[in-house]
Amino acid sequence: MEIGVAYFGVRFRTGKASLFIRDKISELTDAHLVIPDFLGLTAERILSAGAPAAWRIELENALLLALGGSSHKDVRPIQHAVNLIDSRYGDIKVRDIANSCNLSERHLERLFLEQVGVTPKFYARIRRFRSVLNVFADPASDEKPKLAELAAEYGYVDQSHLMRDFASFSHSLPTAL
To answer: Domains, the chain, ranges and CATH?
Structure first.
């Protein structure tokens, strides 16, 4: 990011972008889109609206228009799956998620890729990692967390498995080591 440059973005709740965007969400995962590629809006149109509050209104209007024109997908199974993964902090097997959604594992994976952009297994890994990361960020805790205990509490096989996720997702190790 450049200093003094205005940035404006959208962040959808997990699984909700597919209601607004016709593209495959998995193709957009980790992508940065310039404004003309998003809902047909141009930077000029957004900026001509005036202040950032007006930018938001322009974007909301474009999102409502896209929502009205979309073929309403049934997002309930994926929302159920996301809620289940979130409630278990990512410590759940894909088989159990699929059973809870009354879907086969393969169908769940296809719907997840279509509506979330990643597989349910990968989403669960991210959710579990973020849960552990939140323990390190907790200002109320005076004591450094013990990695072996955290690994067991959040369903990692062992401490080295937890450390591999830290290396994979954050490219660094927690400072509490």
So the answer is: 17-69 (no CATH), 76-170 (1.10.10.60)
